[in-house]
Automatic annotation (TrEMBL):
Residues 304-487 form the Microcystin LR degradation protein MlrC C-terminal domain. This is Microcystinase C. Its cofactor is Zn(2+). Residues 2-294 form the Microcystin LR degradation protein MlrC N-terminal domain. Binds 1 zinc ion per subunit. Keywords: Hydrolase, Metal-binding, Metalloprotease, Protease. Involved in peptidolytic degradation of cyclic heptapeptide hepatotoxin microcystin (MC). Belongs to the peptidase M81 family. It comes from Plastoroseomonas hellenica.
């Protein structure tokens, strides 16, 4: 079995500044056979899909992997189109060189990519694979469940595999499942797909899979799939509202050995999702209430700054919660991770133990121009710890993944210790605090720049009822009426309460 391996993964928030080549270089940019060596490494740069795929193939017997390019970056704004065009040229050259020399293709995708010119870069990459290797080449694609599903994405693949966990913990399993399905395709199984898209852009905080309406729909899909041997995969794609595409909307995608089986299950599951439509809403805690709870709670609490989530394109530097907590004198508190390279650099220059006025988002440099929400804030501070920001994730989405945060500093502002980094990332892993010697277990309040992935990393410290989702302003606010949508189809729930939907008739 000779398999081509490639991928493009970034979640793009249309309201955030553009992502550049550097954002891929600093996260995961592996080419040629490095795709395979990285996947087999103890701490890969890639998230779990490719390592899971390669491990499953390795375990199944001899095979011949042909890596092309796997480019992954943290969520951001749309990718600069010129950078994406260069990537497309690399994939095209790689695929052309493999023409006649491979039996199948595995492609790691996110599904919520954008470029500064394209709404559907994933669809463009899938079409390129079809164009170069022909319509009959078995092609399995895996996606983050936050992907927005275009018709092209479903058309130009054989099997469509979406994550089933949020926070994301099943990337390796989905990679392994992709390998298993690809091997079936290589032995003659034919796959068919059905897509149902609903007019629901679920706020990110309503898409958890441990409990709630989304969990119920995913579980139903798995239960029904288990009853029918023709079903190869059921994916319920929650989508990513801030992508703001014409094809936004929760989507059910079923892959099956018979078209009718795929269509019937997709209908049934889409109806099950629609019946739960009124429950895909955000219930956030106002900032003043969060301050009160930080001061009075008998148990330690985690405060999620869901509106400034770098994992959704947020800049990781808004000051609303830090400023309010500092003004209120909240103590025994950790805040992280704040993206401010100038401040991190200054702390490194001053050295450990130095006292100075920490100026966040200072108006020179590039940071302050990031977006309307990143206001300056200054406070007296002491440098309590420094690092080069090289961290291996300990738990959750980044568990086992080699991360680099760039020069990093822990600053003490009164009773609050703030972790400042130079490379933007969401605060999903306790290692981001712990590698600086900070003790999460000793904190009374921990403020995380993360929407939901911190749940998978910090669950040792904070149970479900110790988490407060704070309503502060930001680029990833779950209050969707605050955004000036440009391409989202209307009416759309929960923005337009009058939205109606009926199952489309089957032709
Ligand atoms: Zn995601």
């Amino acid at each position: 079995m000779r398999i081509a391996l490639l991928g493009f993964s970034i979640e793009c928030n249309r309201f955030a500044p553009p992502a550049t080549q550097r954002d891929f270089d600093t996260r995961c940019w592996v080419m040629g056979q490095e795709v395979v060596t990285d996947a087999r490494a103890a701490s890969p740069k890639a998230l779990g899909e490719m390592p899971g795929f390669v491990a499953d193939m390795d375990a199944a017997g001899p095979w011949e992997p042909h890596g092309i390019l796997l480019a992954m970056a943290e969520p951001n704004g749309p990718v600069e189109h010129a950078a994406f065009t260069r990537m497309m040229a690399i994939w095209q050259d790689g695929l052309e060189a493999l023409r006649g020399r491979v039996d199948g293709v595995y492609c790691v995708l996110h599904g919520a990519g954008l470029t500064t010119e394209l709404d559907d870069p994933e669809g463009a990459l899938q079409a390129l694979v079809r164009e170069v290797l022909g319509p009959d080449m078995p092609l399995v694609c895996s996606y983050d469940l936050h992907g927005n599903v275009s018709d092209a994405m479903v058309r130009d693949c054989d099997a469509f595999i979406g994550y089933r966990t949020n926070p994301h913990l099943d990337m390796r399993e989905r990679g392994a499942e992709s390998a298993q399905i690809l091997r079936r395709l290589l032995t003659g199984t034919k796959a068919h797909r059905a897509l149902r898209r609903l007019p629901i852009v679920a706020p990110t905080v309503s898409l958890l899979t441990a409990q709630g309406p989304y969990a119920e729909v995913i579980d139903l899909g798995q239960a029904w799939a288990a009853e029918d041997a023709r079903i190869l995969n059921v994916s319920v794609m929650g989508g990513f509202a801030y992508g703001d595409t014409p094809f936004n909307g929760m989507a059910v995608v079923v892959t099956a050995t018979e078209q009718n089986a795929a269509e019937a299950l997709a209908d049934r599951l889409a109806l099950a999702a629609w019946e739960r439509r009124d429950r895909f809403v955000a219930k956030l805690t106002p900032l003043e209430e969060a301050v009160r709870r930080a001061r009075q709670s008998a148990v330690p609490l985690a405060f999620a700054d869901v509106a400034d989530n770098p994992g959704g394109g947020g800049r990781g530097n808004t000051m609303f919660i830090l400023e309010a907590f500092h003004a209120a004198g909240i103590a025994e508190c950790l805040v992280g991770i704040i993206h401010d390279p100038l401040l991190a650099e200054e702390a490194h220059r001053l050295g450990r133990g130095a006292r100075f006025t920490a100026r966040f988002n200072r108006p020179q440099g590039t940071l302050s121009a990031d977006d309307a929400f990143s206001h300056p804030f200054a406070a007296e501070a002491e440098v309590v710890a420094l690092s080069d920001g090289r961290v291996t994730g300990r738990r959750g989405i980044y568990g086992g993944t080699a991360m680099t945060l760039g020069p990093t500093a822990a600053l003490r502002l009164g009773g609050i210790t703030v972790v400042v980094v130079s490379i933007r990332a969401q605060c999903a892993d306790p290692a981001f605090f712990e590698h600086l010697g900070l003790d999460i277990g000793a904190a009374r309040a921990v403020v995380v720049k993360s929407r939901g992935h911190f749940r998978g990393g910090f669950d040792e410290f904070f149970g479900h009822d110790q988490i407060v989702e704070v309503d502060a302003p930001g680029l990833t606010s779950p209050i969707l009426t605050r955004f000036a949508w440009t391409k989202l189809q209307r009416p759309m729930l929960p923005i337009d309460p009058e939205t109606r939907w009926v199952l489309p008739p089957r032709g």
